[in-house]
Amino acid sequence: MPFYGGIFDWDISHALLKELNTKAEDPDLWNDPASAQEVMRKRDALAAALGKFEAFERRFKDAVELLALAEEENEDALALEAEDAILSLQKEARRLQIESLLSGEADGNDCFLEIHAGAGGTEAQDWALMLQRMYARWADAHKYKLEWIEESAGEEAGIKSCTVRVKGFQAFGWLKTECGVHRLVRISPFDSNARRHTSFASVGVYPVVDDAIEIDIEEKDLRIDTYRSSGAGGQHVNTTDSAVRITHLPTNIVVQCQNERSQHKNKAQAMAMLRSRLYERELQAREDAARATNAQKSEIGWGHQIRSYVLHPYQMVKDLRTGVERGNAQGVLDGDLDPYLEAALAARIGDADT
To answer: Taking the alpha carbons of 235, 240, 246, 247 in that order, is the dihedral positive or negative?
Structure first.
């Protein structure tokens, strides 16, 4: 969970960090490994958050001093350098402001990211793989770690679906607005006549929940199937006979895991994913009451997309909720998602405040 709310309370945050440091130094802490890991996770996340604000404050003071020196010495070069520094700080301040507002119940948690190809066979499956690569590059740029849970390969290329756990502070908070249908327009590399094709894929983002959050799941509501794992193998998938698929009958939510060689471990991971999906369902219901979007429950097709990625006849990526658009489509597909994430989060926070 996040450690600060809508206003970053400096004194309380430092006091909490001191308390967590004291706990971390207790030699008896590791008698309970699960509790110890949670303490260390909270301490590291809070220390990182405070570090960002302290670094920003230092850079701001340096920029102000540089600007004062430029005026005193009447140096245009120094003035331009100070101006560039302040413009850079403006962008960073916006991001830090949004981070400080990620105060939802699960915003500070890891998340599961699911991608499903829409109708269209190879075209849609290749698009789903492109999205997987885009999010992987975004995560790598922001120092998040990825754990591959499940991947179903396409018949000729791409993937039918995949599930990835994104590990790191505020992973869910930053990615939760990516839920919905993503549309690609391009000249198909699979079409010998070089025709333009439109493809769809859906993205779902669900918070990883810990044992402190109670999710009531009854055994009679579950159908558990085991099967041989499939996929391209390699670093993402181990080919075993221990893959597990769980269907929650009341909601028809289906989760599956095949990355572990042990059926028991795959079942435990699948149950964790199911708990996350049910918890996210509850969070979504609350947001629906506050007029939040519900794009992830839409049909994968026309009229329901949240973002369009156009590669032909021109290049543009446009978010249909916020209006943010950029001409550097390849840069976005290489993981440059921050402008879209920040705008969507700012809009969602604004909706919650109205």
So the answer is: positive
pLDDT beyond 60 at 38: yes
What is the residue-averaged pLDDT of the chain?
A: 84
pLDDT level of residue 295 (50, 70, 90 thresholds)? very low
Q: Which helix (H) or strand (E) holds 160?
A: strand 159-167
DSSP string, 264-315: HHHHHHHHHHHHHHHHHHHHHHHHHHTT---GGGS-SSTT-EEEEEE-SSS-
CB 124 within 8 A of CB 118: yes
Query: Contact at 8 Å (CB) between 316 and 326?
Result: yes
Cβ–Cβ under 8 Å, residues 158 and 117: yes
- Which residue carries 């950029």 as its tokens? 326
CB 150 within 8 A of CB 200: no
**Residue 128 DSSP code:** H
* Mean pLDDT confidence for 100-105: 74
Does residue 3 surpass a pLDDT of 50?
A: no
16: tokens are 């909490």
Supply φ then ψ for residue 168, to 5 degrees.
Answer: 155, 160
Q: In this structure, which amino acid lies at residue 161?
A: S
User: Does 2 score more than 70 pLDDT?
Assistant: no
Angle between helices 33-73 and 10-24 (to 10 degrees): 140
87-110 residues labelled b (16+ CB within 10 A) or e (exposed)? eebeeeeebbebbbbbbbbbbbbb
User: Which two tokens mark 188?
Assistant: 């198909």
**Structural domains in the chain?**
10-100 (1.20.58.410), 111-353 (3.30.70.1660)
To which H or E segment does residue 349 belong? helix 338-353
pLDDT of residue 318 exceeding 60, the answer is yes
Using DSSP's 3-state secondary structure scheme, residue 24 falls into helix
Closest CA to 211 of 284, 101, 102, 109: 109
